[in-house]
Amino acid sequence: MRFTELFLISNLFSLFRILIIPVLWYYISQPDEKYGYMALAILILAGISDALDGHLARKLNQVSQLGLVLDPLADKILAGALVIMLIFFRGFPLWLAALIIGRDLLILMAAAVLLKGRKMVVPSTITGKYAFFFIVALLSCSVIRFDFGVTILTLVTTALIIASMVIYAATYLKIRNGQSVAAYQDKTAFKVIRIGLTAVILIGLLIKLYVQL
Fold this sequence. Notes:
Blueprint: H1 9-19, H2 21-29, H3 33-59, H4 65-90, H5 94-114, H6 126-143, H7 147-176, H8 188-212
């Protein structure tokens, strides 16, 4: 793993998700609701960067050891920081915050213990990617106080977090037993589902904006 890998375009997109945290803190801390929508716009950019980093890494042949670590790590840092902001400024439920942050901490600790001494990086799983997608969607709805979206997404996110933890556990055990684990394949069907769910969420947000106006 080389320091120069940090400056690959795909890795810079991952780094972007960490660097925007102070900006998000500023906007979310403001009482005026319009700042919440500014924070939402930044989160949308973060979501786009999450989709682009892996795609660019494969497209430009820039897959690197640092990228395999930085991509999921940036997701976890951003999600954890955002949860903390929402606890302070939006009254985010502590049990849900503990579930979101606890998942990431358990994954990191399991990797440190089970993979100790092994020169390898565990690739992200498709379930983990979907869990992060819905975590961001849930947190985004919390940012702009979209209560209906928060209620629906809390159920979906909770189920995906539990599923992703089970799959990560199985993945770590396979590696521990010497079995190979391939990186997830983002199939066309998964992309269609993700795009459809994104459209539903955006429509709900647009309806909320229309009602307010």
